[in-house]
Amino acid sequence: MTMLSPEEWEAVWLTLAVAARAVAFGLPLAALTAWVLTRYRFPGRGILNALVHLPMVLPPVVTGWLLLLIFGIRGPIGALLLDWFGIRLVFTTAGASLACAVMTFPIMVRSIRLALDSIDSGLEQAARTLGAGWWDRLVNITLPLASPGILVGGIVGYATCLGEFGAVITFAANIPGQTQTLPLAIYAALQSPGGETKAAELSMVSITLALIGLLLSEWFGKKLNTMLGR
Amino acid sequence: MSFSITLTHRFPSVRMDLAFEVPSPGVTVLFGPSGAGKSTIINATAGLLRPDICRIEVDGTVLADTASDTWIPPERRRVGLVFQDSRLFPHMSVATNLRFGMRRVAPGSIHFDEVVDLLGIAPLLTRRPHTLSGGERQRVAIGRALLAQPHLLLMDEPLASLDAARKAEILPYLTRLKTALSLPILYVTHALDEAVQLADSMVLVEAGQVVAFGAVSEVAARADLPLARRDDAGALLLCQVSENDTPRALTRLEGAGATFWVPLLDLPVGTNCRMRIPAREVILASQPPEAISLHNIIPGTVRQIANDPTRRSVIVEIALPDGGLLSRVTPDAVAHLGLSTGTPVLALIKSTSIEVLGQ
């Protein structure tokens, strides 16, 4: 890997940072969404469920374009963010993170939902009869038991973020050092004449990172499950 | 120390409508076939199921009352519940499981060391729930419920998922518990052997209704109840060891106002115990037989006679001075002896067919 140029290293670090931010913000929200979807029946639940899963089935370009519409400087949320906090998401590193978070959200929600579904609701009932209130049960029973799913969701989400392309390039554009993550850098390299070597090097990095992510999630999942006695 | 419940609830298949009251500490067994509504009573009392109409009171505290729109949530009821499937928290050690409820209430009269000792779970404290056997798991679950300092303990078929050996391992602990703690216990089971060993009083539930309620010795000795039509029907008498006759290898027991001889027991004089006399082992006679190997010839009066057409037999309930016995005989025997309500009769019981149980 010593043959990577400083710009290439920059793309690698940027990718890792963008993915980390996407998971840091996306995962808690994904956990909350998964919990609401598994534990509550309310009007509009079907719509929420569909919305959450939409990025998984939509062409990523469409997701990116929708993000532009909503979070662009004239979009309903984008305008507010700019007015109130001076935050601009479009064409920024934060915007790349947002695009990644939205794209990987369904994967994280699914993983956490599976974990929540596998928790015996009888355990929460038992905790109730032992004097544990709502918050107490969530913190001491539900979350620890769902932790393998949450962690695996986080790792798989992170690994998927590393590969996000369509939504990121549409919403955050391809700015080296700011929004040019690995896949975007690979694409840019392929577009420029004689860039095949660079593309190959970056692809190797990409493959290595993806593999590490998958192996880690497998290993952590197993370890946590043994800790929980499963 | 009292518990009372009035409950009406409509399920798709059965309508429950019942009321009963347990006045004192001790074990009240809710007995009846599956689907009779026993678990509904338990879940409503714990607060996990909200019946259409109910009023539940423990120790003068109203836990639920539809009329005044009172519904205390389960976490504030101070009602312990032991589930059939133990439901230990898999991510905590046995000790942490035990302390879960204890940490959430003010210190009470039930102490950690006492419970651990009573249930024999000291060697398990550092273990994880998934490494325990079914019987051990259930003992921990009982300890965990007790340490939450409940005012009432509910046990929903706690031994139903265990095999006979494991059951036999836990029953003595439950008997000890019952005497060591003055706590009302509501115990659901459909196994007669558990009921007769543990019950002080008994509530018979069938198809959502209370069929009978009373002291276990009264309920077990009634010929008109479905209980008497079981193959293993029999009276249950509370008794006391009054003499150990070592040379003859016999023990004399006093109970229900009568005297019984059984093969020598390992219990000191004065020990309280209970004996179970299966109905099919009780022979009736109108005159005392002579030259017979029998030790127990108990005089009584016929209180009632009930038919059991499925077994082509009748159940005769015999009144003793302070209790009763059941005898399963043929209709022909009833006719032959001329038995009817009020007839004096002798109950002949082999000393070896009396089963003596712990207190």
Provide an overview of this structure.
Chain A is globular. The N and C termini of chain A lie far apart (40 Å). Chain A has helices at residues 6-39, 45-57, 60-71, 76-85, 93-117, 121-129, 134-161, 166-171, 182-191, 196-227. Chain A has one domain (6-227): MetI-like (MetI-like fold, Orthogonal Bundle), CATH 1.10.3720. Chain A is an all-alpha fold and 230 residues long. The model of chain A has no long low-confidence stretch (mean pLDDT 89). The model of chain B has no long low-confidence stretch (mean pLDDT 90). In chain B, a hairpin with a 2-residue loop joins strand 10 and strand 11. Chain B is of the alpha+beta class. Chain B has 2 domains: 3-220, Rossmann fold (3-Layer(aba) Sandwich); 234-357, RNA polymerase II/Efflux pump adaptor protein, barrel-sandwich hybrid domain (OB fold (Dihydrolipoamide Acetyltransferase, E2P), Beta Barrel), CATH 2.40.50. In chain B, helix 3 (112-119) runs antiparallel to helix 4 and helix 4 (134-147) runs parallel beside helix 5. Chain B has a 6-stranded mixed β-sheet, with helices on both faces. A 5-stranded antiparallel β-sheet of chain B has the order 2-1-4-5-6, covered by helices on one side.
In a few lines, what is going on in this structure?
Chain A is 78% helix and 0% strand. Chain A is mainly α and 230 residues long. Chain A is globular and about 70 Å long.
> Number of helix segments of chain A?
10
- Give the ordered list of helices and strands of chain A: HHHHHHHHHH
Examine the secondary-structure arrangement and name the CATH architecture of chain A: Orthogonal Bundle
Distance between the termini of chain B: 21 Å
**What CATH first level of the largest domain in chain B would be assigned?**
Alpha Beta
* Apparent shape of chain B: globular
Counted up, domains of chain B total 2
Measured by DSSP, the beta-strand proportion of chain B falls in 35-45%
Number of structurally distinct domains of chain A: 1
Which segments of chain B are poorly predicted (pLDDT under 50) over 5 or more consecutive residues?
Answer: none
Specify the overall morphology of chain A.
Answer: globular
What is the makeup of the main sheet of chain A?
none
CATH topology of chain A: MetI-like fold
- Number of distinct beta strands of chain B: 21
Tally the helices of chain B: what do you get?
8
State the helical fraction of chain B: 10-25%
Radius of gyration of chain A: 20 Å
